[in-house]
Amino acid sequence: MKVLLGTGGRADGFDALARALERAQEAGDDLTVAVLETSSDSDVDSVAADVREQVADSGIDAEVRVLDGHPGSQLVEFAETEGFDRIVLGGGQRSPLGKIDLGEVAEFVLLNADVSVTLVR
Amino acid sequence: MTDRTYPDETVGSFPPPPAAFTDGDGREIRIRESGRDDLDALVEMYGDFDPADRAQGIPPVDPDAIREWLDLIVSPDAVTVVAEHDGRPVGHAILVPDSGDGYELAIFILDEYQGAGIGTQLLEHLLGQGQTAGVERVWLTVERWNEAAIALYRKIGFETSGSESFELEMSIRI
Prior knowledge:
The structure holds 2 protein chains of 2 kinds.
Chain A: E1 2-7, H1 11-27, E2 30-36, H2 44-58, E3 63-67, H3 71-81, E4 86-90, E5 93-94, E6 100-101, H4 104-112, E7 116-120
Parallel strand pairs in A: 1-2, 1-4, 2-3, 4-7
Antiparallel strand pairs in A: 5-6
Helix pairs in contact in A: 1-2, 3-4
Chain B: E1 19-22, E2 28-33, H1 39-47, H2 63-73, E3 79-85, E4 88-97, E5 103-109, H3 118-132, E6 137-143, H4 147-156, E7 159-162, E8 167-173
Parallel strand pairs in B: 5-6
Antiparallel strand pairs in B: 1-2, 2-3, 3-4, 4-5, 6-8, 7-8
């Protein structure tokens, strides 16, 4: 399966990346990682560097791409034009009370993607 | 999040617990401050919670996950009150400190005790206990379709502070 993982550098995105790499190992997914420009404090280039390191450590041959611009729409457009079967995203951060906060990218992608979307918990 | 907004004006004073009243269905309800001593009783209450009333993943369903969640949020820094009927909790409300100077609020009432005025009393006494503890800024998130809850929060004095996401965010200054 051709899988596109999107992350802006939040902790849940790195958890999702770890799981996507595990699954790629087991199932032989063709994994691509898109690093997104989100409104979080993380700098895109340093997130991309951390992602490349995590990918390299896993031994999986996954391409890492930085997508500039509005994160949700860029990810959906990339998934459609490149023919991905599935988009994978972090499952959201927890509020102080433990409530799930999905974040801007997940909300946009869930409503606008025309491929299946997996939120990793 | 550090960009959370709060109303400029404080809402006034709320009554601190304890309190006792007769609810809309004629049941004698007591409200008191709660804490870590109540964890066992609260785990039991949340075990009876209607899964349809869950919000954004809480409360968890599995008993071990309920205990783990309560153990985390019912910290010494949290403000928490319980509504009891016949000596067992039927409602629980809590303020949990965020990473800034605000507190996140949540309230849970067992299905068979909803719609009887317990939520209003529990919220007012939670905020009263909060004022006693020096809490000034409180926020919450609520599903957009949950009109009953939104109406209750408005009645207490909460104002909408964020509406860009799936959930509505509301805040109050006390």
